[in-house]
Amino acid sequence: MSWIALAFCGPVLWALSTHIDKYLVEKFFKTTGVGTLLIFTSLIGLIGLPIIWAFVDVFSIGTTGVIVTSVSGLLYMTAMYFYLRALQQEEATTIAPLFQTSTLFTYAIAYFVLHETLTTQRIAGGLLIMASAAVISYDPDHGRKFKLPIVALVLACTATLAVAAVIFKFFAIKNAFWPVTFWTFAGEAVFGAAMLAVPFYRREFMGMFAKHPGAVIGINAANELINLGGGLAARWASLLGPVSLVQAIGGTTSFFVFLFGVLISLFFPKFGREDLSRGSLIQKGIAVVLIVGGVTLIGRAGAN
Predict the structure, then answer these.
(1) Strand, helix or coil for residue 144
(2) Which residues contact 25 (CB under 8 A, 6 or more apart)?
(3) Residues 64, 273: Cα–Cα separation, whole Å
C-alpha cells in the first residue's frame, strides 16, 4: 500500500469516529466535560501495550528515545485538550480552517529537524488539499469573527500536534515503528492517569460507568479503536512519505465527515442529518476537485 493511501486511511477513520462521537455526545455525554473523553482516548492504547511488548524489543530505541517519544504521547493528548476546549466554545466548522495550520507548523519543523525537501509540485499539492479543507468548512450562512482565545487554543493545538508528529518520525525512521508506538501510547496513558488523579475528573469518569456501562465500554471503546487505527495509519504513512504532506492529507477529514454525513442522512436519518441543498453540494464538489488535484500533484512528484 502506498503512503498516500495509508495517509488517507487516517482522515477516513477519523471522520467515522467524529460521527460516532457526535452520536455519543448527543445520547450519553451531554453533561460531561472534555476530561472524560480525553481519559478514554489516552487509556485505550493500554490494550496494545502488552501485545507490542510480547513481540518487540521496546527498549531498542534507547533511553533518550523512550523519554522523548513518551513526551510525544503527552504532547498529542495536550493538543487534543486544546482542540476540545476550543470546540466547547465554537462550532467545528468555524474552527476547521484554522486547524489546517498544523500543516504549516509541520512544514517548518520538519524542514529544520528532518531536513525534508519539498518540491514545488508537492507544496502545490499540499496547498490544494489545505484549500479543500477550508472550502468544505466554510459556512456562508453563519459567518462570524474569530475570538482571540479561540484562535490561541487552536494554534496551541496545531503547533503541539506538529511537534509530536515530527518527534515520532525522527525516532521511528531511525529505529523502529512499533517501539516508538509503544512509548507514545505509554505517554498518552500517563496523561490519562494524571487526569484520573484529579478528583473531579475521576468522579465524572467513574460516574459514566455507573449510568451507562454498555455505552461507555462498548460503543466508546470501539470508537477509540477506530480513532487509534486512523492514527496508526497516519503515523506509518509519515515514515514512508514527507510528514508535512501526510499532515496536509489529514486535513481532508472534514470532507469525509461531510460525505459520511450525507450517507447517514440518506440511509440512517435517525442518527444524524446533513445539509443536502444545492449550494452545499456545489461547495462540496469544489472541495472534491481540489482534493483530487492535490493528490494527483503529490503522486506525480513520487514517493519520498
Answers:
(1) coil
(2) none
(3) 48
